[in-house]
């Protein structure tokens, strides 16, 4: 059975060059990067080389890069690091209704600690309107956190406009760029943001390593307290293998991102066109053009998404359900719900996210399999058979 991986927004395959780069750190290069002897110095150099590669990719300074264990920890460091720093003028945070759980649940936690959070809505195409952020700001607002790209729909947010609004109001701006990194250009020099989150395993690196870029001169409170690592912003010995992997992955992005993004977009567009040409009653969730080049979120009407997901898995196709985080909920995906999508349509939503290693053969196989499974499931769907009967009666 052929295996097709269309879930790159969840995690990516490890690039062969990344796997090769970390091998020495699984054997001879084992020292603690904080040690001052020879075993530590060699490892420290590798950590700092990785920091430099990542800084070069974004166009920031190496000392602005703080390594963490994941994008989730970096999001926590950004939001809590601002919330708990001394001297804040207020306790109000602005975010959106479609953020990753790492932001949403951190904000909900802070609400139990006396902070007030405004969750601005998105439009029908899943994009945060800059005016909604502007209207939400108050004299007590200390942080705006809006993702660069949505992990479920791929929608690209107007971070430049929103960041400019926050900056003009004297409010700090954070963006979770985990999904956007490696897919669309991100320039630290021109982005009006103060903090940016990234993650290694979304860019063909290893799981267990991520980071937060913190603009020079900005102070945040540590979330993990311990040693002096990461300039005392994140205590704990660095995950050397994960950090080295990130450094290599980012160096590959610096060389290959433009060409790879164009190729993935070509495959994604071919996949999307074929689905809409061959299968009726589909709904595209999100913006048709303002989205990541690798992502398509589709509702297959009259089909339950989890059943479709399981049937595709049995045919070797890996993708994700639009309601994976709310499995068992009749309301479906909270992201699609925030967009005002039809609840019934939301139940049949799947996300397909392509990436490194995918081919035209993958696309052809997946489209054939999806068409076969949809026909099978709709034949068993009382909603679809009832609709077909009504259509047949009207034509007579």
Report what the structure shows:
This protein is an alpha/beta fold. 42% of the residues lie in helices and 14% in strands. It contains 13 helices and 13 strands. The protein has helices spanning 16-22, 38-58, 71-83, 101-111, 130-136, 159-168, 229-232, 240-278, 305-313, 334-338, 343-347, 360-379, 382-395; strands at 4-5, 65-68, 92-96, 116-120, 141-145, 172-176, 195-199, 210-214, 282-284, 295-300, 317-318, 320-321, 349-353. It is globular, with a radius of gyration of 22 Å. Residues 323-329 and 392-396 have low confidence and may be disordered.
Distance between the termini: 43 Å
Uncertain stretches of 5 or more adjacent residues: 323-329, 392-396
- Number of contiguous helices: 13
The major β-sheet equals:
7 strands, mixed
Spatial arrangement of strands, main beta sheet: 2-8-7-6-5-3-4
Please give the domain count. Answer: 2
CATH superfamily of the largest domain: Type I PLP-dependent aspartate aminotransferase-like (Major domain)
Shape: globular
Looking at the overall shape, the CATH architecture of the largest domain is 3-Layer(aba) Sandwich
Structural class: alpha/beta
Give the C-alpha Rg: 22 Å
Helix-strand topology string: EHHEHEHEHEHEEEHHEEHEEHHEHH
The name CATH uses for the topology of the largest domain is Aspartate Aminotransferase, domain 2
CATH level 1 class label of the largest domain = Alpha Beta
Helix content: 40-55%
Secondary structure tally: strands: 13
Instruction: Indicate the mean pLDDT.
Output: 94
Strand content: 5-15%
